[in-house]
Prior knowledge:
Elements: E1 6-16, H1 23-31, E2 36-46, H2 52-58, E3 62-66, H3 72-82, E4 87-90, E5 96-97, H4 101-108, E6 114-122, E7 130-132, E8 140-142, H5 146-149, E9 160-163, H6 164-169, H7 180-188, E10 194-205, H8 215-227, H9 237-257, H10 261-272, H11 275-300
Parallel strand pairs: 1-2, 1-4, 2-3, 6-10
Antiparallel strand pairs: 4-9, 5-10, 6-7, 6-9, 8-10
Amino acid sequence: MDPAAGVLPVSVIMPAYQRAALLPRAIASVRAQRTVQPAEIVVVDDGSSDRTADVAADLGARVVRHPSNRGIAAARNSGVETATQPWLALLDSDDEWLTHHLATVWALRDGHVLAAASALRWAPNTRRSQIQGPPGSEPLLLRSPAPLVFPGNFLPASAVLVRRDVVREVGGFRTPDAVEDFDMWLRVLERGTGIITPDVTVVYYVHDSQASGDAARMQARHILVADRCRGRPWWSPALVERWQATAEWSNVRSAIRHGRPREAARHASWIAARPRRIAAVAQGSLLRARLKRRTRQALRTGVRPGMAEPPAGLRMGARR
């Protein structure tokens, strides 16, 4: 910890299951924050059989222990209830913050219920790495949950700072299977505005054991969670249909890559049935292309896992 760093009224919530080997990296990335530090780190050991809880305690975190594995939503809720601070900063135990993360999101928070930065989704094959965040070059104001339904959820969980009282008011994290974060952000943004910067401040590690790796299940759950909001002032069937069109286009591309032409044709015919779906695919493709350009820029400038400092003067979302 930088001895000159100010302490913020922030509790870091870190759920962990069988993560004794990875916790030191995640906690070290919190301790390495420059200029500001959180008031506490709360690690929730979700029924691990390894030394997860002991490692967390040895590294100075407050530890909550579940006697059995209850899942990430329950683990985060235990962290929320244990936290003593008015703001919560989420960090998954297999991710890491860059040294400017907390200062970046803290500076954005005024007047909002949620503030977030962008993340580099890091894959062992760097060609699969991609930035998760807004496609533009300026911070994006979220006046409603609608943009998270379409174009999609661009709020990386490990990059979010959120008000604890609002998380509790909306009932905490629920368990819609692999999209707990999306479900939470929709409900939080019904209580106030949010903001997300294109600045990259988090490294999100992509690996095979993640639930988010099951594309079909993720797509189905995204639609299920969005449909739960039916009847809300910001919700519309067209919003869900547009997102589903972009998901079907991803299915077309996947089917072609895997040599399944009939499956690709089936997905493509659904898209072609309505002009609105075709327009949504075009918009989604444009946004993905912009994020790919930003990703290439980030990788060229040296953003990598374990990076001690962001490149001097670099704003990842800025035009160059």
